[in-house]
Automatic annotation (TrEMBL):
Name this protein carries in UniProt: NUDIX hydrolase
PANTHER family referenced in this protein's UniProt entry, alphabetically: ADP-SUGAR PYROPHOSPHATASE (PTHR11839:SF1), UDP/ADP-SUGAR PYROPHOSPHATASE (PTHR11839)
Listed InterPro entries: NUDIX_hydrolase-like_dom_sf, NUDIX_hydrolase_CS, NUDIX_hydrolase_dom
Lineage: Bacteria, Bacillati, Bacillota, Clostridia, Eubacteriales
Source organism: Clostridium neuense
EC numbers on record: 3.6.-.-
EC class (word): hydrolase
Length: 202
């Protein structure tokens, strides 16, 4: 069993979707240090994970979706309050309760784009990845899938300000040349799709 370097967890601010904690931990020299953590998890869940060996829950699903009829990648451009700007992203969303990431991916794809998930490529899908481990424990399933249907804003929530696009390999190449804000996971996916196109989803 690995050594638990975390010694104490203290809530500093808690809200519905995000909380801030102070962590006391031992560094590699054994010195007691403090670290600020932003987490999607409430105090009881995080405490059980750190001190009782509870399995870590995946927080979100990020969806790399290939539209089979148009042969294009599904992309969104969403307003993000912390940046006060629109950002190119992949469809994504938080996993509800005991929902599987498969179910969350299908639900979020429908809500954000109007498209219907056909199949998930589980060989390429990764069940737990991290985007900013120096600041947050937030994890996401990176879901590779195919989809069908027509784009729609009918299912968007009031606070979701989203433009949905289907982009070809060539359109992605042109987008990558522009000085626009992009989510890092979308950027990596765009680079891969610009190089491989449809093969990326086989």
């Amino acid at each position: 069993m690995k050594e638990n370097k975390i010694k104490k967890l203290t809530p500093m601010a808690e809200s519905k979707f995000l909380s801030l904690y102070d962590i006391e931990y031992n560094n590699k020299l054994g010195d007691l240090k403090h670290w600020a953590l932003a987490s999607r998890k409430n105090f009881e869940t995080l405490k059980a994970q750190y001190f009782e060996g509870k399995e870590e829950k995946v927080d979100a699903a990020i969806i790399a979706a290939f539209h089979v009829d148009s042969k294009k990648l599904v992309c969104i451009r969403q307003f993000r309050v912390p940046l006060n700007d629109y950002v190119y992203e992949l469809p994504a969303g938080l996993i509800d309760g005991n929902e599987s990431f498969d179910a969350a991916a299908a639900r979020e794809l429908k809500e954000e784009t109007g498209l219907e998930l056909i199949a998930i490529n589980h060989e390429k899908t990764k069940g737990k990845v991290y985007a900013s481990a120096g600041m947050t424990d937030e994890s996401a399933a990176m879901v590779f899938c195919t989809c069908k249907g027509s784009l729609s804003k009918e299912f968007l929530e009031d606070d979701e300000d989203i433009e949905v696009m289907l982009l070809s390999k060539e359109e992605i190449k042109e987008l990558l040349k522009k000085d626009v804000k992009m989510d890092m996971r979308a950027f990596i996916m765009f680079q891969a799709f610009a190089g491989m196109g449809e093969e990326l989803f086989k």
